[in-house]
Amino acid sequence: MNFIQTLAAAWKKNDSLLCVGLDPDPARFPASLRGKDEAIFEFCATIVTATADLVCAFKPQIAYFAAHRAEAQLEALIAHIHAAHPGIPVILDAKRGDIGDTAAQYAVEAFERFRADALTVNPYMGRDSIAPYLAYADKGVILLCRTSNPGGGDVQTLEADGERVYERVARMAAEEWNENGQCALVVGATYPAELARVRARVGDMPILSPGIGAQGGNIAAALQAGQTRDGTGLILNSSRAILYASAGEDYAHAARQGAKAARDAINAHRRRPPETAND
Amino acid sequence: MNFIQTLAAAWKKNDSLLCVGLDPDPARFPASLRGKDEAIFEFCATIVTATADLVCAFKPQIAYFAAHRAEAQLEALIAHIHAAHPGIPVILDAKRGDIGDTAAQYAVEAFERFRADALTVNPYMGRDSIAPYLAYADKGVILLCRTSNPGGGDVQTLEADGERVYERVARMAAEEWNENGQCALVVGATYPAELARVRARVGDMPILSPGIGAQGGNIAAALQAGQTRDGTGLILNSSRAILYASAGEDYAHAARQGAKAARDAINAHRRRPPETAND
Questions:
Q1: Catalytic residue among B12, B95, B139, B260
Q2: Which residue of A34, A58, A227, B82 has the fewest C-beta atoms within 10 A of its own C-beta?
Q3: Is the CB of A124 less than 8 angstroms away from the CB of B155?
């Protein structure tokens, strides 16, 4: 199965559009993990165990590993997810972007070294910067489109030829880069009107939508704007609100409760109850 | 000294606008290095020794290290450049781009872990994605503007409000993000007309210009378009044409000859002979 098929199966199996983002910050770990070797792996693996039946994907953010020389722990974490929770895709959030020869090296890093199922990619450098990832036919390529942060508007909402830059990126993804059905897009849940404009342009293409947790995005508005007709189509990411739901030793339990609450809050706004969905 | 000051001193001391890009590809190493532990470090360090008096900067490309689990060799390489060739700035080419909290982790990776003097950054996510790098006042932030690859036009040359996206990025860098004099831009030598448009908007801001080597950019045209009035302002990068000038055991000698030829070809088109420059 390729990434999009794996994702669709996970939406269904776990009845969930929730993605847990793995942004490990050792300064926020419970006391028992502080200063421990492999603390980053242990913290993330515990979160994974506590939430794996509640999510459609996990999304480790590579910067949090790279800042701590923890690439080996990231490799181990992704291998652990594949082994212990097969069927839950792993999105490596690295927002890579470079020209062909160099992009090919980033593709090796993401797909061969780290064994991610999908990678986030920055579209600023255009088509030949994306092709090397698409060459891995079973992998997902998730292009930044309209990001959740305030500065996202500096470039992404500029209007050219009657179309905003993020709409152009969505259209190129849907019409030019998705020959093999590998593409998805990043559109922040913090901008539901723009999420709706993207959905209108890309059919059922999956949209990774950060911002429902600590960033304050409204779940109902995001669902209304972004879900497909069958009540899927979204990968709604929450990181800090789940990882750090408790600062204490009960962090795994608190993360599970937080993930369950988020999944249920999302499901309350899905277009059809999952038991009647015809997928 | 901050990055821009260090760069200006290196332009002058080595009478060079040439930057050697360190894109180590083990498949192209000479036979004596194949399969050797630390071959990546050894290859790059040999190139550095052979060219350090001919360049204004070195630019390691992180993807070539990450694809081979060679982050430790990258750390060692940058430490070696700082120790053996103080005054030659190291630009970490990683094209990072993410929102604030995550960008802060990438800044730790680049500036604290790898000890780079400057980092390439993707502007697609806008101002709050750039601020965490600017917080390191002595470091350089080199924003992608008009990249050297064909697909660069997919987003960068879209025209909004009478201004192309890359021109807008150049203007934001010059007018809004450069309060502390840390910014530089990436504009490919393969597009001299666009290099000239950027130069017209950014005063003496340094421009990192890839494409004069294997990508075929014309040195005379790049100099005419991009140099400042005093014949500096450019960091002209060449990677493969120098690293792989010879596939044999004479690679260091061949790299030196290639770097010397590139430096001299560049200098032949500089606005004033360096000995009469008034800086």
A1: B95
A2: A34
A3: yes
Nearest to A154 among B69, B122, B172 (CB): B172
Task: Sort B175 into a burial class: Cβ within 10 Å, 0-12 / 13-18 / 19+.
Answer: exposed
Write down the pTM of the prediction: 0.96
A239 to chain B nearest CA, in Å?
12
Best of B102, B112, B239 to disrupt the A interface (most A CBs within 10 Å) is B102
DSSP letters for A163-221: EEHHHHHHHHHHHTS-TTS-EEEEE-TT-HHHHHHHHHHHTT--EEEE-SSTT---HHH
Provide the residue range defining the domain that includes A116: 3-271
Tens digit of each residue's pLDDT (9 = 90 or more) over B102-152: 999 999 999 999 999 999 999 999 999 999 999 999 999 999 999 989 899
- A230 domain-assigned: yes
Whether B95 is catalytic is yes
Q: Percent of chain A, pLDDT > 70? A: 96
Cβ-proximal residues to A67 (8 Å cutoff; 6+ apart), any chain:
B105, B106, B108, B109, B112, B113
Q: In what order do the strands lie in the sheet with B18-22?
A: B57-60, B18-22, B234-238, B207-210, B183-187, B140-146, B118-121, B91-96
- In B, minimum Cα distance to A98 occurs at B95
- Nearest alpha-carbon partner for B81 in B53, B110, B52, B55: B52
Return the CATH number at B9.
3.20.20.70
Using pLDDT thresholds of 50, 70 and 90, give the confidence band for residue A51.
very high
* Percent helix / strand / coil, chain B, rounded to 5: 50, 15, 35
Q: At a CB cut-off of 8 Å and minimum separation 6, what does B271 contact?
A: B223, B227, B228, B229, B230, B231
Model pLDDT for residues B150-206, shown as the tens digit of each residue: 899 999 999 999 999 999 999 999 999 999 999 999 999 999 999 999 999 999 999
Chain A's closest residue to B172, CA to CA, is: A154
Q: Do A98 and B99 lie within an 8 Å CB cutoff?
A: no
If one counts the domains in chain B, the total is: 1
Coarse DSSP helix, strand, coil percentages of chain A, rounded to the nearest 5 percent: 50, 15, 35
Interface contact flag, A102 B64, Cβ < 8 Å: yes
Contact yes or no for B188/B210 (Cβ under 8 A): yes
CB spacing of B126 vs A156 below 8 angstroms: yes
CB–CB of B158 and A169 under 8 A?
no
Tens of pLDDT, residue by residue over A91-101, are: 999 999 999 89
